Amino acid sequence: DTISVIGLGYIGLPTAAAFASRGKKVVGVDINPHAVETINRGAIHIVEPDLDVLVKRAVEEGFLRATTQPEPADAFLIAVPTPFKGDHLPDMKFVESAARSLAPVLKKGDLIILESTSPVGATEQMAQWLAESRSDLSFPQQAGEQSDINIAYCPERVLPGQVMVELIKNDRVIGGMTSLCSQRASDLYNIFLEGECVITNSRTAEMCKLTENSFRDVNIAFANELSLICDAQGINVWELISLANRHPRVNILQPGPGVGGHCIAVDPWFIVAQNPELARMIRTAREVNDSKPHWVVDRVKAALADCLTTTGKRAADIKIACFGLAFKPNIDDLRESPAVEVTHLIADWHSGETWAVEPNVHQLPASLAEKVTLQPVDRALKEADLLVMLVDHKPFKAIPADQIQQSWIVDTKGVWR
Ligand code: SAJ
Description:
The chain has 15 helices and 15 strands. By secondary structure, the protein is an alpha/beta fold.
């Protein structure tokens, strides 16, 4: 039996590799020829621990192959991005084109699983697109248990940086369009899954994925709101949270410069888009988290003003060092990162030098490189006038307190408190 994975990104490629490592024949499909060519060489085009070894072995042993055009298979997994199209509305164009592109190669008995984060109803919509685009009209297009193909929604829930572990260990929510669809999808994941397959319908599974990330967003927003309140009240928010968390039923998350990544800052808006009147707390949480970078920049402006009055220096002579660019600690992923946003905003306003300190990258993105220079930790600690802590990477946490001589520090992670 052949398994085809459409979309070879952060979710599709690890999933393809997981099936291939269990001796299944996997054909990966991606519209990006660079990704296809890289994978067929046995290499990877994304950063994720342990994935490189797995892909290399799978390609060498002939279990994994990539292509730009869908081919016939017995099971298809769709793991393409679902970004925004303007105004926080979900854009399903990649799911639609993936579905339409595989319709011509479908045959009776095939299983199609959607994994991409999607609004409620997306799986029914995908079934519609498939039905419209099918060329094998010899099979009657029937709904429900009579349908000649099986469709399910099975969201991924892996944490970037730990994908290969969580892919196998986490439980899977299986949202089949019928119970036969769910059964077949469960059988497929059980090829590599150590966690449990939990069966529900497709709409509940779609909402479940959105709910998980909204839960985290709302809880981070609570921590971020506390950090603003504590700042106004002269209270150390990290001490406060650790004290409150000693209550047996309180477990507050950590504040920071904002919420980044491709999921938590996006998925809650899918709920808001479909329920604008009802999703009041979910929307507010998004607004609280999205406004945090601006609040941080206001703190930096205040610190600079104080520095200028105290030292009598000119702003143009002040070096501001931003520690961390990644969207969370101990990774190198800068996409949708609040730390990058804060650094941009500082560099746009500050007349002196703005430095970025990010041990996990060797080159700044072009837009940042125009106005910011990448500096080593030591130099920033010695020469910068104002320090801005944005990401609590391990090496930053390890800096001994006596090496931090600066009087002006804006610490969004409570590392140098
Ligand atoms: N963050 C905080 N405070 C915290 C925890 C996180 O400010 O206490 C920030 C991080 O710094 C980062 C953002 O939130 O900017 C998101 O980071 P994360 O580690 O919470 O999550 P992601 O985006 O790496 O992965 C999430 C996970 N979802 C949940 O934990 C509910 C993952 O399991 C999902 O599979 C993934 O989204 C996804 O693909 O949807």
